[in-house]
Amino acid sequence: MSPAASEATIASKAGQTGPALPEGSPPLEVRGLVKRFAGVTALAGVDLRAGRREILGLVGPNGSGKTTLMNCISGVHRLDEGQVLLQGEEISGRPSRARARQGICRTFQNLKLFGELTVWENVQVGANAVGGRGARPVPDWLDLLRLGPVADAVVRSLPYGYQRRVELARALAGAPEVLLLDEPAAGLNDEETAELRELVLTVRAEVGCAIVIIDHDMDLVTGVSDRVQVLDEGRTLFEGDPRAAFTEQAVVDAYLGES
Ligand SMILES: Nc1ncnc2c1ncn2[C@@H]1O[C@H](COP(=O)(O)OP(=O)(O)OP(=O)(O)O)[C@@H](O)[C@H]1O
């Protein structure tokens, strides 16, 4: 997709709060990222870009490199080659904590919550990580994520759908410029997934950060994303309109294991 067409798509989805305004460097840019694990090349030179108020869906068959890419962006993995830039500043060599303080916030495939702490305390941890520099106080995030009524509940006592929302609230309290959502619908039922979809759009409208989402629920990803990037065997196979992705033969073949 051309940059102009991409901006147009972004603007149309951001319509609830006005168009995305291209200004300076994008929140997130990845250039030529290579990541190897022993004999496996998980990423073979991937570029990625996510703009302010843009939702980018990262899709691809199992083992195509999606989580590895997210881990390289957030600093869980060191990259072998390439660059990760946050608002134009290279952060490739920085540890994950430093990246989080600078605004790369994320959720994980497997929840990483403090189960013995309350909902409020878990979200406060996110706020503390940025020394209270968050855009809003903790109660506002609880309200946005519809967690107010369970603010004082111990997290491990709550149903899984609530726990997923707590993780999202904690990430938001960390003042994201870039929000990385790794399989946020995993383990959710249809009703909870529909609610999550609505919440992701609300977060984009209210927070205005760039959002990168991975999920195996294609209806969720294509429904919520302004643009998708399809990976296969560590390379980008397609990048553009979510509705067009699965009309591309190469993408269909990759999903069917025929490439
Ligand atoms: N820590 C690791 N050590 C060794 N190999 C790894 C490691 N993490 C990922 N890989 C390999 O890198 C490749 C990409 O894996 P990755 O988990 O990023 O794919 P994915 O697209 O997220 O898959 P899925 O959709 O199944 O979660 C795979 O071949 C995988 O086996």
UniProtKB/TrEMBL annotation:
<dbReference type="InterPro" id="IPR003593">
    <property type="entry name" value="AAA+_ATPase"/>
</dbReference>
<dbReference type="GO" id="GO:0016887">
    <property type="term" value="F:ATP hydrolysis activity"/>
</dbReference>
<keyword id="KW-0067">ATP-binding</keyword>
<dbReference type="InterPro" id="IPR003439">
    <property type="entry name" value="ABC_transporter-like_ATP-bd"/>
</dbReference>
<keyword id="KW-0813">Transport</keyword>
<feature type="region of interest" description="Disordered">
    <location>
        <begin position="1"/>
        <end position="26"/>
    </location>
</feature>
<keyword id="KW-0547">Nucleotide-binding</keyword>
<dbReference type="GO" id="GO:0005524">
    <property type="term" value="F:ATP binding"/>
</dbReference>
<dbReference type="GO" id="GO:0005886">
    <property type="term" value="C:plasma membrane"/>
</dbReference>
<dbReference type="Pfam" id="PF00005">
    <property type="entry name" value="ABC_tran"/>
</dbReference>
<dbReference type="InterPro" id="IPR027417">
    <property type="entry name" value="P-loop_NTPase"/>
</dbReference>
<dbReference type="InterPro" id="IPR051120">
    <property type="entry name" value="ABC_AA/LPS_Transport"/>
</dbReference>
<protein>
    <submittedName>
        <fullName>Amino acid/amide ABC transporter ATP-binding protein 1 (HAAT family)</fullName>
    </submittedName>
</protein>
<feature type="domain" description="ABC transporter">
    <location>
        <begin position="28"/>
        <end position="258"/>
    </location>
</feature>
